[in-house]
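Appendix C reproduces, verbatim, an entry submitted by the partner laboratory led by Prof. M.T., so that reviewers can inspect both the input and the predicted structure.
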Amino acid sequence: MTLHFDRRGEGPPLLLLHATLSSSRQLRTLASRLAERFTVLSVDRRGSGQSTFDGPAEPIPATTHIEDIARLVVGEGLAPVVVVGHSYGGCIAIELASHRPELVAAVLAYEPPYALVAPADAQAGMAEVGHRTLAARDDDGLAAAALMFMAGVSGADAVAAMSPAARARVEEAGQGAVADATLAGMDPDALGRIVCPVRIATGGGSAPFYAEIADALAGRVPTADHVRIPGLDHMAPVLRPDAIAEAVEDFLA
């Protein structure tokens, strides 16, 4: 397995972790903005982007992502590192802080769908998205799995409204959709072991369950708070990178 990453900038080390159906490429503008102050390492998580994956497409547990990232951070000589994660990348950032605290200086997680602390209806909904994604993989292949995941998260209308080019990009991310679909390996019992500063950020324009999860995480992580940023939605790290960069800088200040 080869883990693809991009390194840019000078200054304190900062690691960027992307969302599902995404890669470091979608965070390039945010990485460039943060590289004005930080040494930024943007990673394609295993199964996504240009990171190769050996074997059939299967859910990847959080522990595997943690092992991959730990090797990279240590190998690049960047520990301890600030970790900024978008969506499922935020879940992995939190898990890294709980299981490898010596590697993490601080975490900003933007709208992590940390299912095991979510309200019951949100938990059930996320579990159903995972089930349907894997069923689509089994029945129709990886492209169908990616579209099913997007429909489950963003709605069927969002899928129908995509341009042919956008649809093709989503279909190419089927392996990543399968890798993340079940949110495998989350360990909520370890959240209380986190010792670094943690901020869970949510957007004022996002679905309410993200804020509910953020409040639950802030209640379990001793060093965490929840900040809601008006005017942003779930795709802000991609579409509003300046606003997210400002949130990171405010947090670290």
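The chain has two domains: 5-119+184-252, 120-180. Additional entries are available on request from the coordinating office.
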